[in-house]
C-alpha cells in the first residue's frame, strides 16, 4: 500500500530533522542565561562560572559547539544532561513511554466520549439534547486544563478517594488506574474540539443524497449511521485528531505537573528553565520526529477512509 | 491483696515508663518533595535539592546541631585545635562502617578532604581552602592549616566534606574524578542513616535504613527508626497537599505560606514552621552608572536608606508570607551564629524617607526598575506592594518579570537596578552569608557593586580570629556598617514550612535546610 509514498514521506523527515536541529541549537543558545549560572545560582563567582563553563565545553565558540553536537548525533549520542549528569537518551527512554501512554489514553478516552455524543447531538440537532452537549463541551473547551485537572483531583481523588492522586503506577493495569484522571482531563479537552467538528460533519452527511438513498433502500438507521454517515463524517475528524495528538505530545506539560507524572513534558520544562541544552535539543528533535510520524499516520488513515484523497 | 496492688502499680509504672521511652521502629515514610535531587555527589553537587538531603546518605566528621548554630561530634568523636590555631586533630569513632559494611578509615577521610579542597572539583572547595595538608594515621586525622580558621569546624560539618569510601569510588567506571563521581552517585554508598536503594529520576527515590549506622536511638539500638524512606517528586503545591490530606503522604515540604493557616486547622496534620536561616531581600545595583550608561540614583546611600524606610514590613509580611515571617534586621538571619541582637533594622518612616530623598536631590522621586522571577506569585505580590509603598514617596517602581536563568545572567553581568532574591546559609557560621553579601570578594557583594573599606579590612580578620568574643565584636561592627550602607532592601525572614501527618514523630529541618530523618518514626 503506497510504499513509495510512505518512503518518500519518511525521507522528508530528514531535512526537517536538520532544520529543527540548527534552529533549536541556535535558539537555545541565543536565550540569555546559561546552564552554569542556572545551576550555581546565587553563589556563582565569576571564577567558578568560568571553570564550570570550561569543564562543560561551553567556553568554545558556538560553531565549534554545534560541530561537536552534530558529531555526537551522528554517533547516535544525544549527549548528557548538564544538570542531571545522565545521558539524554536514557532520560528520554525512561520518560517518553509514560507521556505516550498518557497521550494515547487521552486520545482513546476523548474519542470514546466525542463520537457517540457528537452523533447524538447531530441526530437530535437543535433539540435540548444537542444544546446541552454543545454547551457542556463549549465550557470544557474554555476551561484551562490545570483547572479541570485540579477539580477532578479534588473531587474524585481527594474527596471520594476513587483514584490515586498523582503518580503512574508500575503495571499496565496500574497505569490505566493511575493515569485515568490526567487522561480524562486531556481527553475532555480533546473531546470538546472533536465534538464540534464531528457533529457538523455528521449533520452534513445526514443531509447528503446517498443517505436518503440508503434510507430509501430500507437499510436500518444503525447501519446507515455506522457504514455511511460515520465513515464519511470521520474524515475531517481524523485529521483534526492527528493534529491534536501532535499537540498533546508537547502539551502534556501542565497535566504532567499537576498530576506528578514524570513524563517528557515536565522534563522539557525543567530543562528549559535550567538551560540544560542537551536535554532541550534531544527532546525537541524527538518531538519533531514523533509529530511527523503522527502526521504521516493521519494522512494514511485519511486516505484509507477517503479513497478520493490522493497520496502524492 | 496489698502486695498485689503494689505489684500491679509497679507493673503499670514500668509499662508507662516503657511507653514514654518506647518509639516505634520500622515502617515506611512517604515524603513529598517539590523537585528531585540532581546529583548525589557531596563535592560536585550544586543545589539545595541535593544539599538538603545529602546528609541522609553521607556522614560528616562533625555535624551541625539541631539549632544550626554550633557543631557536634559526627564520625569524629572529638577534635582538638592547637594553641596557635594551625593544627586540628580529629579522632574517629571506633568501629564505624560504611553502608556496605566496610570500615571507615582515616585514609578514607584524608582522601575525601583532599578531594573536597581540590579547586578543580566543584563549587565548594573554598569552604576549606585554609587546609594546607591532611595526614592520616590509625584513627587520627591531622589537618594542618595555612592560617587559623574559625570556620573550619562548621565546614567539616557541611555536606561537601562528607566521607565516602575511597575504594568503591575508585572502583567506579570512568577515566577521571568527574566521570567516576557520576557513576558512583548513581548508587552511592556513604555512612549516613540511610542508603539509596532505588531512584527513578523525576518520580521517586527510595532510601533504606543503613544497618551499620553508628548512632543509637532512645531505645539503645541503632538508628534510624524507619525501615524505608520514600521521596515522591510532586512539583505542584496543590498535588502535594491533596496527597497529604488523602493520607498518601506522611510529610510534604514547601507548603505555600498562603495555605499554612488552613493546614494548621487540619486535625490530621502537624503544620510545622521550622526556624530557618532564610532571608528575603532586594539587592540594589550601587554602581554610579547602569549598564546602558544612564545615571543610577541607587548609588546614593541616602536613596537606598530612604527606600528601606519606605517599606512597611509588617504589611509585607502579612501580604506575602501570610503572617509567617519576621522583619529582617541584619544582612544575616537571626538564626545565623553571631547575629547581632542589637541590630534595629529599618522601621517604617515615610517622613524620614522623604527627607532623605529630598536631601539626595530626588524631591520629586525617580523611576527605578526591579527584576522579578516570572511565574513566582511571591515576587509579584512583593513587588506590586512595594510599587504602592514607594509610590507614597514619589518613587515609581517598574517590574520586569524574567525567568530565573536570565535573571542570574543579568545580575552577574551587573545589568540590573534591583533584583529580588533569597538566601539560606549552608554553614553554621556567619562567614558564608557575609562573604557573599558584604564583601567585594568574587561576587562583588552579591553583584551589587557595593564595597566598604572597613568591611574589606574586618572580614579577612574575622576569618582568622579564633577568639570567639573578638570575632563576635567584628561581626557586630560589620552588620552595623552594612545596615547603614543598605546595599539591599531588608525584607523578611521566613521559616521552612513542612506539613506532617499527626503520627510522624522526630522529623526536623535544621535552619541550614538539611532534612533530618534519622530520628523520624511513624507511631501506630
Automatic annotation (TrEMBL), chain A:
Superkingdom assignment: Bacteria
Topology of this chain in the membrane: Multi-pass membrane protein
Keyword set includes NAD: no
Annotated ranges, domain ABC transmembrane type-1: 96-302
The keyword Signal appears for this protein: no
Gene Ontology process terms (BP): transmembrane transport
Coiled coil region boundaries: none
Family the entry assigns: Belongs to the binding-protein-dependent transport system permease family.
UniProt protein name: ABC transporter permease
Compartments in which it is found: Cell membrane
Any single Gene Ontology cellular-component annotation: plasma membrane
Pfam families: BPD_transp_1 (PF00528), BPD_transp_1_N (PF19300)
TM annotation in the entry: 12-31, 98-123, 135-156, 176-195, 229-259, 279-298
Main subcellular location of this protein, as a coarse class: membrane
This protein's UniProt keywords: Cell membrane, Membrane, Plasmid, Transmembrane, Transmembrane helix, Transport
UniProtKB/TrEMBL annotation, chain B:
InterPro entries, per database record: Peptide/Ni-bd, SBP_5, SBP_5_dom
Any Pfam family matching the protein: SBP_bac_5
GO molecular function, one term: peptide transmembrane transporter activity
GO biological process, one term: peptide transport
Domain Solute-binding protein family: 71-442
Signal peptide limits: 1-22
Assigned keywords, A-Z: Plasmid, Signal, Transport
GO cellular component: ATP-binding cassette (ABC) transporter complex; periplasmic space
Family statement: Belongs to the bacterial solute-binding protein 5 family.
Protein name: ABC transporter substrate-binding protein
Species for this entry: Deinococcus psychrotolerans
